[in-house]
Amino acid sequence: MQLDFNFNLFHDDAKIELGLQDFLKNIEIPTSFLAHYKLEILNEKKSKIQYKIISDCLNKLPLNTINKLVQYFKEIPNLDYLLSNIDNQSLDQIQLKQLGDFCILDQKVSELENSFPLKKSIQHQKILSILNQYLQDDFSYFSKSEQIDLLKLEMDNLNQNFQNAISNYEKNILIDTKIKLYYPYKKEIPYEKNLLSQLSQSKFISVSQKDNLIVIDYILPKDIQNLQSKRKNLLKKYQTLIQNKLIEINSKLSPYLSKFNNYIQLKKYRLYIYALCLFSHKSNLCIPTFQNKFILFNNARLFSLEQNTKNYKPLNLSTKSGASILFGANMTGKTSVLKTLYFHFCLMQLAIPLPATKIECFYPTNILLKLKNSGSIQKKMSSFSEEIQFWTQDFQKHSVILCDELFLNTEPSAGEIISKIVIDYIKTKNVFFMASSHYINLFELNDVNLFYMKSLINKNNLDKHKLLEQIPFELAPIKKDDKMCLQTMKNEALELALCFDLPSEIKNKITNILKG
User: What topology does CATH give the domain 288-515?
Assistant: First the structure.
């Protein structure tokens, strides 16, 4: 099962770093029954329905049962070709066997799904009863029919007579020409003038010249031609009998297969749900709770960062809708916080379980991520003008807006002023907005949630390599009157610089400044 998805729907710069595709590959299951599954962004209603189905499945079916169900699904072949012939009642013998095999396996699946059944079903017993009436040996052969059996016996006898006649004919050719032929294949041998003349005298073969080759073909005797003609006639008669039998079977099955196509699509979707459940069990994922009162992320993990960071710290965030500002020195993980939020909100739009302990929030109608960049030559826009352009759009209710280093790409005093104006505007909207910033005066804003990345530098006396192992740092809320926190944030960039192998003159000056 390969997941197909238009990844252009997500932010170009973030989707690779987020490891979204690698994360989704954990859901894929090797099965031909569901070779591809197309992922689509769901609206709020559909997302809630799918999460409810996943939750019910996890609650009602034990893990070992889900594993057994997936194993059964792996035995089911791809039925797409079969489905295309059901509507016009043209199932052939191979497809009838596929249908029978599916019904037997699906009965076992349905028994295991007893506590979590599909709302729709098919009449397995009716279908199997018809197939057993006409087919035998696990649906591989037609059941006994005197007319067909007599015709097959006649064909077998005729085929044996034909093979005997051909064998004698090949022996006569060998005796007459000293050349061994295998009917019905022609033979090519190197050209020799005398040999061509000699072979032309044989009544058993025809010869011709092709470039530097002699081409030898058969001249079938009349008795063999008659046997061949009888074989063709018997085969045509046999095929007509079989075709009539297939028409009869298809007609009998038709009333019970009218909704088979829809049923198979439901089964494919159910397999996808089982794949999500297995991944959820394996990776300790959670189902989000959608509500409009607050935003809660407990131990939210960013898949790509978790795989590559030794002492990874998941994100814990508790806040409300509106505007939130995230402070902290460079290299403390502010951008990682925004990417973690973006990653989880994107998964919500796909209704996929989330790598977290608990998440509560509104359903994100739209997810917007603005990362730092150096502008666009193609668009003839600077990084600042691109950021201004970002704010010209309308923001839907319950949008998620994440901005990295808000208006940092311009003159600092102007950047701070426009940041305040934008935050005052966005905090009145029914959205979740979080931006990282170095503008300390944003503390002055009212009705804004303030956070910072807790520094570990003073506690652990880290060098650069140990520092990188700690990123991202922990997220913590700040109060507007927390002057100690303000002073700490002012010093963090200098403290971070000391973690690097700078020249001693630079380090000494930084140390003296920190000492005051």
Answer: Rossmann fold (3.40.50)
What dihedral do alpha carbons 273, 279, 283, 286 form, nearest 10°? -10
Torsion 441-444-450-453 (CA) sign: positive
Residue 22's closest CA among 227, 258, 307?
Answer: 307
Of 480, 433, 427, give the one whose Cα is nearest residue 338: 433
* 3-state DSSP assignment of residue 369: strand
**How far is 231 from 422, CA to CA, in rounded Å?**
87
Contact 431, 321 (CB under 8 A): yes
pTM: 0.81
Closest CA to 21 of 6, 33, 34: 6
Q: Is 435 in contact with 450 (CB distance < 8 Å)?
A: no
Q: Does residue 360 contact residue 294 with C-beta atoms inside 8 Å?
A: yes
Q: Which whole-number Å values give the CA distances from 221 to 78, 184, 228, in the listed order?
A: 48, 14, 11
Residues forming beta bridges with residue 360, ordered by sequence position: 289, 296
CB 409 within 8 A of CB 389: no
Per domain, the residue ranges of the chain are: 2-122+257-281, 146-228, 288-515
User: Between 483-497 and 504-515, two packed helices, what is the crossing angle to 10 degrees?
Assistant: 170
Instruction: Compute the distance between CA of residue 91 and CA of residue 443 in angstroms, rounded to an integer.
Output: 72
The DSSP code for 286 is: B
The answer to whether 106 and 33 are in contact (CB under 8 A) is: no
Quote the CA–CA distance of 62 and 57 in Å, as a whole number: 9
Scan for tokens 């808000």, then name that residue.
Answer: 406
Quote the CA–CA distance of 492 and 482 in Å, as a whole number.
16
Q: Which residues contact 328 (CB under 8 A, 6 or more apart)?
A: 334, 436, 452, 453, 455, 473, 489, 492
pLDDT along the chain (516 residues), means of 10: 70 67 85 88 94 95 94 89 86 91 91 86 89 88 83 91 94 92 92 90 91 92 93 92 91 90 91 94 94 93 77 87 86 86 93 96 91 54 74 87 86 86 89 90 87 68 59 77 69 75 83 78
